[in-house]
């Protein structure tokens, strides 16, 4: 259970009882450092679950528990998150410039440090390697197809350019999704909704009680 006092967001949960170390203090430069927290709030302060989604305050320190396996974590991975409402993408039908401007203005951003085990760090490296090799292999089809078409006078070899481009784009998109570990489903100025968290980790948390955010 998070132990976080169930006041509405924006309300000081500590009242006028004096200064308390901010449990949402951002990680310090030079590496992740969990801030000192009141015992009643540690270690899940600012964390909730909403179905299969982790809801967290943007500055809430994640515990030393792997988000992917629910095991004690040994490493930290910095993730720079970005999110804007999916409907903004529809403006690209009006014009690319309009979409770019709206995306820049309306995109929410946050930096978090997720905890992972050595096993999940190794999995991430393997996925990165596979994505890179797949992408480079696909890109190699482009000059190969052009060279074969020119040197053999058989234009059909030029069609290798198509799977080359498609394969490279697919490797880029799939690789990004596979190595990110978690991804934002939604973001506000204060809160992040994260996908990809292990169900047993979520079961440790209190249910997100707010319906108006």
How many strands appear in the DSSP assignment?
Answer: 7
How far apart are the termini? 21 Å
Lateral strand order in the biggest sheet: 5-6-2-1-7
Shape: flat
Order of helices and strands: EEEHEHHEEHE
Radius of gyration: 22 Å
Proportion in β-strands: 15-25%
Instruction: Output the number of helix runs.
Output: 4
> Into which percent range does the helicity of residues fall?
25-40%
Parts with pLDDT < 50 across at least 5 consecutive residues:
1-20, 22-40
Described by strand count, sense and barrel closure, the largest sheet is: 5 strands, mixed
Which structural class best describes the helix and strand composition? alpha+beta
Tell me the quaternary state: single chain
Mean pLDDT equals: 80
Summarize the structure in words.
This protein is an alpha+beta fold. It has helices at 96-106, 118-152, 161-179, 199-202, and strands at 47-50, 53-57, 75-83, 108-116, 183-187, 191-195, 206-207. The strands form two sheets. Strands 5-6-2-1-7 form a five-stranded mixed beta sheet, with no helix packed on it. A two-stranded antiparallel ribbon has the order 3-4. Strand 1 (47-50) and strand 2 (53-57) form a beta hairpin. Helix 2 (118-152) runs antiparallel to helix 3. The protein starts with 46 loop residues before the first strand and ends in a 6-residue tail after the last strand. Mean pLDDT is 80; it is low at 1-20 and 22-40.
Output the keywords.
213 residues, alpha+beta, 5-stranded mixed β-sheet, two-stranded antiparallel sheet, 4 helices, 7 strands, disordered N terminus
